[in-house]
Structures are given as C-alpha cells and as structure tokens.
Amino acid sequence: MLKLSDYDITPDRGFLAPYEMDEVTLPSDFNAILISGKHLSDLMLTGRVRHFLNALPEIDMAAHIDHLNDAQLRRLMVHYSFIVQAYVWGEKEAAQTLPRNLAVPYCILADKIGQFPLLPYSSYTLDNWAKLDPRGDVALNNIYVIQNFYDGLDENWFILVHVEIEAKAGAALAAIPGLLDALAAKDGAGVTTGLRTILAAWEKINPVFDRMPEGCDPYIYYHRVRPYIHGWKGNPALPDGLIYDGVAKYAGKPQPFRGQTGSQSSIVPTMDALLGIAHENDPLREYLDELHQYRPPRHRKFIEDVAKNSNLRDFVAASGSAELVGLYNDIVNHVQAFRTRHLEYAASYINKQARDSEGNPVDIGTGGTPFMKYLKKHRDESGQHLLPLPPEKSA
C-alpha cells in the first residue's frame, strides 16, 4: 500500500504543509529577511522596493542549509520567494537581474527543497497559511495568510480559497492507497467504498471554489494580485528570463522559469492519474509535463505512483456495475465542473480585465501558457472520459 506520509500528504490537510507554519522559528541570521517580508507591502508602496531589498545582507545559506529542518526550509522559501517576486515585478519596469544578495542564498535554498528559484504554488499557497484557532478547521473562517505582497482582502482571499480547497481534498487523497489496493485485489466492495469517499470530498471542494468572488474582485485581482506572481518564461517583459547574479551554475545567463499558477496544484493531476483521464499530446500537453517539475518532489512522486498503479477506469468499465460506473462518472463530472469554473474565472478575472501591459500580458497565464486554450481543452477532455452505463440485467 502507498503510505501518505511518504508523499508529504495528510488526511486532514492533503498536500498542505503538515506543520503549524506560524510557529516555525528561524535562526537570528535570517531576521532581516523576516522583517523585510513582514514589511513587504510598505516597501512596495514606496515605488522603489529594490532600493530597500538591495540593502539586505547576503546570508551565508550554505552554512545554514544542512542545519535547517523541513519546516524551516519551507518557511524561508515562502519569504524569500515573495521578496524575489517583489524585486522583479515591484516597480514599473521588470528587473532583468536578481542581485547576488538575494540570488545566491535563494538558489541554494531552492536546490535543497528541490524546486526552481522563483515563487512556486507550494510557497504561495501550501506553506503560506496558519490557523486563527489552533483547534479549528482549515477553513476560510479560521485561516490567514502568513506572507503577501500588499496585504489586501482580495490577495489574501485568493490564496485562502486555494488553501481550503487543498484541505478539503485531503479525504480524497487519503482514500487512494486503499482504493489502489482494492483494485489490485479485484475487490469491488473496496473500490466502491473508495469512490464514495472521493466523491464526498469533491462535493465539498467545488462549493469552496465557487466562493472566490465573495472576497476577490476581478479588477483588483488583475491589477494588484496577478502582476506579482508572474514568472519569467513566456513573458514578453523578460523574454530571455532572469539573470541570477553570482550563481555559478547559471554562468550569468538568463534563466526562464514558469510562474506560479493554480495549475501547479497536484489535486486535479492526481485525479487524472487515478481516473485514467488522458490528454492529447500537443504543445499544451508539453506545457503540463513541464509544469509537473514545478511541484514539490514528493507530490510529483505521488501523482506518478498513482498513475502507475491505477487501472480504475478499466476495472469499472469491465465491472458491469451500474453503481461503480455511476460513482466513477460522478467524480469525472466534478473534476470537469472544477475545470469549467476555472475557465469561467479566467474569462472574468483576466480576459475581461485585459489591458496593454508588458508585465501583465492578457493571453498568457502566470505560468506562461495560453491559458484559455489549455483550460477549454482539458475541461472538454475530462467530459469525454465518462463511461456508458452497463445494460440493465433482465429479471
């Protein structure tokens, strides 16, 4: 059986950090980073955020890196990532070079964690929250953002909706190992139980996603949230990428990396892997394959292992069970509904807010992909995987 703990997954939090991130302490050498993170909105408001970030010390990350635990590494990655994004996008023109006082320690940190040196979804969402009441649920009425850019309602709500979605997915993820074992044992009852649990989780996920407009206005998102989470691949403001000053392995050459995007969440790819939902091999599929490398290493491994071990679609199709087919199709429909909602938000939060700006291109998502085509394509492909109900058995 697959063990959730091997993949950094918990039943109550899913892919979210298993730590109380607000309680994570760091050595005093990192105080300047923590203070800059705390006051990042104040620094950005001046219009010359780089002036202040240039003055930060170049911390000897190599001396610390092997003495920091996983929670500390992730907490640092959150703050450094926001600071780096603010440096690149926080003034009128995009920065072409990240100074070595940020670039050198940040790249060492990213390498240790196994991610690229820019803001990933894991640092934007998975590791960037805490509970108000430690005894309460991971829900919108009990969580807050640890690090942000401008500390506004819309920015925080945008992040926190994704946090609760990730938490709600925990029950579905926790059901997968047992479901895979049931498939291997040809245990129809076990498969049915697993699918019921996954369906129940999805019935809670989509209503949370529906709440996005309650606290995140499309205009504010487009103008005050989206500009700072872009990457530097496929972005006309940084056509060749970003130079990481002083990082030997990059030899002074610009590095193109994809920006954080909700498409880096591992929930839907895990469902695709389990359900056997395949996407056609085209440029957009190539983008998704590339995006997979931006996920935390253990989350990537979970998706890969689920895909390798799941024959769910074939099992259900051959079962002759109307109940199994119905459960399978209901889950596919929920995944399709999630993608449909994502498409609707892309239209209202981006296309309708379009303006001429190099740093905030209209037809390119924050990950550097033509998002509307991608979302439409994958929504439609999900629906094409519905299974026909078996014929009713004669009495």
Describe what you observe in this structure.
- The protein is mainly α and 395 residues long.
- The chain has one domain (4-383): Methane Monooxygenase Hydroxylase, Chain G, domain 1, CATH 1.20.58.480.
- The chain is built from 18 helices and four strands.
- The strands form two sheets. A two-stranded parallel sheet has the order 1-4. It has a two-stranded antiparallel ribbon with strand order 2-3.
- The longest helix is centred in the last third of the chain and has 28 residues, at 322-349.
- The chain is globular.
- The chain starts with 30 loop residues before the first helix and ends in a 12-residue tail after the last helix.
- The model is unreliable at 355-360 (pLDDT under 50).
- This is Indoleamine 2,3-dioxygenase family protein.
- InterPro entries: Indolamine_dOase, Trp/Indoleamine_2_3_dOase-like.
- One of its GO terms (molecular function) is metal ion binding.
- It comes from Micavibrio aeruginosavorus (strain ARL-13).
- It holds the Pfam family IDO.
Please tell me the overall pLDDT: 92
Tally of structural domains: 1
What low-confidence regions span 5 or more consecutive residues with pLDDT below 50? 355-360
* Named CATH topology: Methane Monooxygenase Hydroxylase, Chain G, domain 1
What's the total number of strands?
A: 4
Pfam families: IDO (PF01231)
GO biological process, one term: L-tryptophan catabolic process to kynurenine
Keywords: Dioxygenase, Iron, Metal-binding, Oxidoreductase
Organism: Micavibrio aeruginosavorus (strain ARL-13)
